Structures are given as structure tokens and as C-alpha cells.
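Sequence and structure are kept together here, with a separate record for every protein. An example record follows, reproduced without changes.
>
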Amino acid sequence: MPNKELDKLSKKLDNKFKLIDKIDKDNEIELKAEYSKYLCVLVSGYFENTIKVIFEGYTKDKGHPNLNRYITKQIRNKTNFNSQKLKNFLKEFNDEWENEYEDVVDDDEKDAIGSIYVNRNNIAHGKDNNISFAAVKSYYEHVKKLVCKINQIVNCS
């Protein structure tokens, strides 16, 4: 199911990756590494925002306006999704969604979201972090696939 808001969020971050990918001079490698940390933080925010968009859209389409308002407020408090937290959140809505998640989401996608959050938290708390542009870009590609799968699970069940 196409979602304009999800596409908008993806395109915005895609453009930042393209911009930073252009940094390739030897004397700017350190700058690219610093921007990679920034991208890691943006990817974690992207994931949280897309999950919120998917569920807010679902409740808006399927539920009473009061239910939508309640879910919208509750979902604002959901952060730091790892694979288990996401699976539990899906189960809160529908037991079958947890099973579908396990069936369609692969280990690379689960690992990507976990790695993004571990790195994001290390960056935020000033811990050593050597995440590379290639790693963040790979995680982002897996996260985008995961978002599509979650959207499918929620909106096509």
C-alpha cells in the first residue's frame, strides 16, 4: 500500500545519503565519518517516525476518532525500537502480526535496526563510535525494507 508520508520521509533521508556519499577526497574522510554518525541518528529517527506514520494511518483508517487520538498519543512515547520491542508492539495490535513479522523479516533487517540504535545511543552519550558511511548506508537500506514489510503487515492484513 503506497503511503505518501513514508515516501516523503524516505526521499528526504535518501537525499542526505547522496549528498554525503559525494565526499570522497582523502583529506575529507574524517568529515565523512563524522557525517556518518549524523546519518545514524537520522536513520533511527526515520525508523521511529515511519512506525508512527504507519500506525497512526492504520488507526485513522480503521478506528473511531477517539481511538485514533489515544493511539497517536501513546505512540509518541514509543522509542528505541529493537526487533523484540517492535514485535511486541505489533502483537499489542494483533497476535497474527507478530507471526507475520517473524515470517517475513530477515536477520539482516533485525540486526540493522538493533545496530542503528546501539550506535545512536553510543553517539548520543559521547562513547567511542567508529561507524562507517558504508555501514550506515547498509543499515539504512535494510531499515527501509523493514519499514515496507511493517507497512505491508499492518495495512494488508
About this structure: The chain has a mean pLDDT of 90. Residues 4-155 form one domain. The helical segments are 4-21, 29-62, 65-75, 83-93, 95-104, 107-124, 133-155. The two ends are 11 Å apart (CA to CA).
